[in-house]
Amino acid sequence: MDIKAYIKNSIDTKTKILNDEKILKTIDEIVNVIVETYQNGGKVLTAGNGGSAGDAQHIAGELVAKFYFNRPALKAQSLAVNTSVLTAISNDFGYEYCFARQIEGIADKGDVFIAISTSGNSANIIKALEAAKKQDVITVGLAGETSAQMDELCDYIIHVPSSSTPAIQEAHIMLGHIICAQVEEKYFN
Fold first, then answer.
1. Is the entire prediction scored with pTM above 0.85?
2. What CATH number does domain 17-188 carry, 1.10.260.40, 1.10.8.10, 3.40.50.10490, 3.30.450.20?
3. pLDDT tens across 33-68, in order?
4. Separation between Cα atoms, residue 15 and residue 161, nearest integer Å
């Protein structure tokens, strides 16, 4: 792959997001619902597979630790980090339930679940979203450009306007950073 072409593809994807009023409005709505969840004593849960699992951990880490300034920790947890839980659930119930069982066990009504999937069709993400909906958890989805199974299960969804998995993932973490920065600013001011 040509280095400049790769960089241009990433920039073009982010420029499309910058110019998409629907996406910008959805980001603002997600920020507001997360702030409201924190004001009500709730928490944010995140999940994804592969690189998206890394993004889920990253977003949870920014909320718990800090983003731009020192402040009290916010309640957030990635469902992709506990190998004992993940392997027990996968062994006993099947990999498609590795996040759903955790949602059943630790999510409360009014919490926010951020589901990250470049395809929007990952079986374990779909099962987790279904479990979240049953428990009145607010569902947020980050996906690629095409319509997907997670669309019907998300209260808020952002489709990154690209079919390139790396460009989608790069945009997902950018969106995660924006959400974390805005939540931090609004909640603590």
1. yes
2. 3.40.50.10490
3. 999 999 999 999 999 999 999 999 999 999 999 999
4. 10
